Amino acid sequence: MTYAVRSATVRFGDTLALDDVSLEVEPGSVVAVVGGDGAGKTTLLRSLVGKVQLEQGQVEAPSSQQIGYLPATAGSWPSLTVAQNMDFVGGIYGLSGQALVSRRDELLGRASLLNAADRLASQLSGGMRRKLGFSMAMLHDPPLLVLDEPSTGVDPVSRVDLWRLVSEAAAAGAAVVMSTTYLDEAERAASLLALDGGRMLASGTLQDVLASFEGAIASTAIPHRGEWAWRRGRGYHEFWSTAAEIPLDGAAVIPDLEDVVIALSLLRGRHRELAS
Amino acid sequence: MRAMIVKEFRELRRDKRTLAMLIAMPLLLLVIFGYAANFQVLTVKAAVVGPQATEFAASLPSSFFDVSVIKPSDNQGDAKQLLQDNKVDVALVTGQKPVVALVDGSNLFASQATVSVLNKAGDKVSSQIMYNPELKTSWVMVPAIIGLILTFIGTIVTSIGLVRERETGTLEQLAVMPIKPSTVILGKISPYFLVASIDMIIITALGMLLFGVPFNGNLFVFAFGAGLFLFVVLGLGVFISTISQTSGQAIQTAFMFLLPQILLSGMIFPLDAMAAGVRWIGYLLPLTYFTMISQGVMLRGASLASLWLPFLMLTIMAVVVFTGATLRFRRDLAPGRRRHHVTAVSEPAAGPTGIEARSGL
Hints:
By secondary structure, chain A is α/β, with parallel strands linked by helices. Chain A has helices spanning about 40-50, 80-90, 95-110, 125-140, 155-170, 185-190, 205-210, 255-275, and strands at about 5-10, 15-25, 30-35, 55-60, 65-70, 145-150, 175-180, 190-195, 200-205, 215-220, 230, 235-240, 250-255. Chain A has a six-stranded mixed beta sheet, with helices on both faces.
């Protein structure tokens, strides 16, 4: 069963939050939605879970009973303990008794939170809170799991843990859609969707996105055109329309996802300027 | 220093609620205290019964006694009934010497003024204060304070409880879960309803124990009135939560609702003594009607039938406030369903649900 948002347009007042954006996710796979602040990631995820109404377009998603959702905010009730948070969500989804206890302990065990079961959510570290939020979203074993920036603000070790949990969920058959600002996370997903200003910059597998990139990236110590360059390591990377345009002091590099997303964002910004 | 002052002014300019409190509140307090802060009752509603009712009513100073009932055929029992039903503040029973003046002590300031005027008549009139013979302030205040405590829990505590969900972002999570907005609201307010009810029982019992406040009426009538009133104030709490983003804002707004109730409900200043311009505000406040019920039941032993007006007003308020607040809360919880026309096509349980929307549909 494929879940999707097709040609979605969302407007908040005068602001066009999403403009003809599409997303598709298969069971057993992870789709990463990447983009900077205000790119439209959260709006797209909220559209998928039915929280935002589309001006145009179509959403194909299961009922709320079959969706697990981790919002970008806390994701848990701070004045409840870890176990109480799980029990509350279990109650909402109709889980009770031994079935709830088994499932709860299994998920808390996987998230290394079993020893913290009696701690208040407000007393957990940021990473532990996100893992709790993930476990709560997974409690009812939903076929569609929607995670809004699960790893933002989380320490590197907890990020690894979270990715393991996400991978396990996908391996168990869940269709996972997650937004992230980390491009290395997006590279690990089965497919990705890059957004900028509510529009699609690129979509598909990592290989598709890299292969469809038109232009050339040069590594240089001093950029020739500041508006087309960005820092990478100790030097800069600079976008050129073709490899032939790269100056002699620049060295052509094989673009990675970060290069492609930044270059496409710059191109889109230039198009917008020209249009206005 | 300059930067700090400029920053503070900029923040203040954007904080409309604090700005309103700074500018509107002093004006409001000035107007309210100017026109409402008056303990002096200038006229009282009176009834005259007994064989010489007509003649005696004509002899009463009309500037003070607003005689609305003159019934020569009625007796002392009928007069007491008029007082119990709160139709008059004083009932004068003729046909005996001296004339007996039955004064409603549950209306403290009116009764004090009435006794003062009647004392001038010397031994022609014998005053008998009903329901609060020693004219104790605590007897009148305790029933009103029960309402104030319910208002406090209903508005401030409930609104904070709901706003906290918004502050922590868990409201968004609830919105995605398979739980109806009405279930969320009922689940949220039920504990407050229970806590407020327990508080009410404790305060009532303590009031009776410490101050000797009587409970002359029917417990069920009192409980029914308190339940209705709780629905109104809980509805206000839900409403406040829908117009507040933070706990601080909720507290600020709740106080804006609470302060007029304290000042204009007749709890402190008698409604009859207020200027007509502010008195009508008092008649829009739920605490005004709960105080009528609590004082009526506890002190006068008033029946449900005689309290039909405050019960009707609280019922209307409960329906209007609770429905309005619930609809606003639902809108917060399910914004998509509010703003747009959605065609949701349910498919078999295991299958997906298609949600489609087209512009202009």
